[in-house]
Amino acid sequence: MNALESDRIVFSNAKLLDGDQPPQSGMHVVVRANRIESVTRSTPDLGRDDRVYDLNGQTLMPGMVQAHFHTGFGPTPSAGPAPILGLEAPPAFMGMVAAKNAMTALDCGVTSIIGSSNPGFLDVSLKDAISIGLIDGPRVLACTHELMVSGDQADGTNRSWYMGISESGLTRRVDGVEQMRQVVREEIGRGCDIVKLSVSPGHGSHPAADVSYYGQDEIDAAVSAAHEREKRVRAHTASRESILRCARAGVDIIDHADLIDDEGIELVLEKKLGVTPSMLWTVRYLEFAASWDYDTMGPFPIGDGFPETRAAVDARLDGVRRDFEYTCGVLPKMEAAGVRLLVGDDFGFPMMPHGDYVSEFEVYVDQIGIAPLSVVRWATKHGAEAMGRGEELGTITPGKLADLLIVDGDPSVEIGCLRDGIVGVMKDGVFHREPPRPDDAA
Ligand SMILES: [Zn+2]
What we know:
- The chain is α/β, with parallel strands linked by helices.
- It folds into 2 domains: 3-62 and 395-441, Urease, subunit C, domain 1, CATH 2.30.40; 64-386, Metal-dependent hydrolases (TIM Barrel), CATH 3.20.20.
- It has helices spanning 91-107, 122-131, 177-189, 216-228, 240-249, 262-270, 280-290, 294-297, 310-337, 357-367, 372-386, 417-420, 438-441, and strands at 8-16, 24-32, 35-40, 51-54, 59-62, 64-69, 110-115, 139-141, 143-148, 171-173, 194-198, 232-237, 253-256, 274-276, 340-341, 404-407, 422-427, 430-433.
- Strands 1, 2, 3, 4, 5, 16, 17 and 18 form an 8-stranded mixed sheet that branches. The protein has a 7-stranded parallel sheet with strand order 10-9-11-12-13-14-15, with helices on both faces.
- Mean pLDDT is 91; it is low at 1-5 and 156-160.
- It binds zinc ion (ZN).
- Zinc ion binds next to loops.
C-alpha cells in the first residue's frame, strides 16, 4: 500500500446527483486527497486504510455555489431594518458578521460563494482568512464595492453624507470611462476577483424604470479592465436597456434581469453569461409591505429616507408586483432556452437571514414551476461555471475537486430536503461535517 492510499475516502451505495443529470442509484465515488478519483457503478477495490461511508441510498451531490452573496449583510448593533450601507458598525464588527455568514453558508452546504458588493474589502479579507485556515468557510470569489454613478437610486438624499467614505461603505461613486478604468484596476489590485456595477434601478423593492445609469462606454471600460486581468464583472440590472448594455459588453453575471426580453435572452445565451434572478427578495419584500399596518405603524419605510404618501407607496408596490409577475413568466422561458441561471439572493436582512437559502429555491420550484433538478443544476454546475471554474467544480466527475454534500432525501424530487437533510459537507476533500459511519456507531 502506498502512502496516498490512506487518503482515500469511499462513498458507497450513493444516489448520485452529479450536478447535471438525473440521479442514478447504487453508485460509488472515491475521493483521493482533495479530488474525485472515480465514479463507478461497480464496487471499487478497497484498500486496507480506505475510509468507507455506506450512504445506503442517500444522495451524494456537489457542494453548492451561492452566486450572489453579500458578505456584510447581517445583524448589527444598530438593529436597523436595512443593513446595507456597511457603515452601521465598525469594520471589526463587520468582519465578524462576514465570518459568521461564511460559516453559516458552509453549514448549509454552500462550498463556494461569488461575492456581490461589500464594504471595506470584506470579501478579500474573508477569502484570505479562509485560505490560511483562520476560519472555516466556502471558497470565495471576492467582490468589489458596488460601483455606481452619481445620481443612482441608492445615491439618495438620505445617504449622500457617506458617499465620500468610499473605502468603508458599500458603494463607491464612479463616473466616466477613465475613472471606471482606474477604480476597477485599483479594487482588483486590492484583491477583488469580481467587479460589481449598479446599472439600473429596480428589483424587489423598486419598479424597474427603463433606465441605464451607466453608458455603454463605461460598462465596456469596466469589462475590458477586468477581463484584461482575468477577473469577472457582475451588474445589478433590472431594466431592459441596462440588461442589453451589460450583455453586449459581456458582463459575466447579470444580476436580477427582471425585465429581460427576447433580445436580452439571445445575447445572454450567445455570450454564455450567468443570470441570478434572486426572486426571494421580492417575495419577502411584498409580504413585508402587505403586513404593514398604516394605522398603528405609520408611514411605510421606503422612499429613500422620507415618508411617502400611501398612494405613492401603493403605486410603487404595484410596479414591483408587475415586474415580479413579468419575471415569473420569463424565467421558464430562460430555463428552456438554456440560460446559465444561478442561485443567490440578498440574504442578510431580518426578513431573509443568511442560512435561509433553500427558500429561494422553493420560489422557483413551488411558485414558478421550475423542475427541482434544474435548480440543483443552477446551484452546482452553473455556479461553478459562473466562477470560471467549471473544469474543476460543480459536478461529480473524476479529476474534479471534492466539494461534496451527503443529503438525506433527493433534492431532484423534493428541493426542500436541502434545508434540514444535509448530513455531510466536504470541501476540498476535507469534511466540514462528517456523516456517521456504520463502524463508528458500533
Ligand atoms: Zn444584491
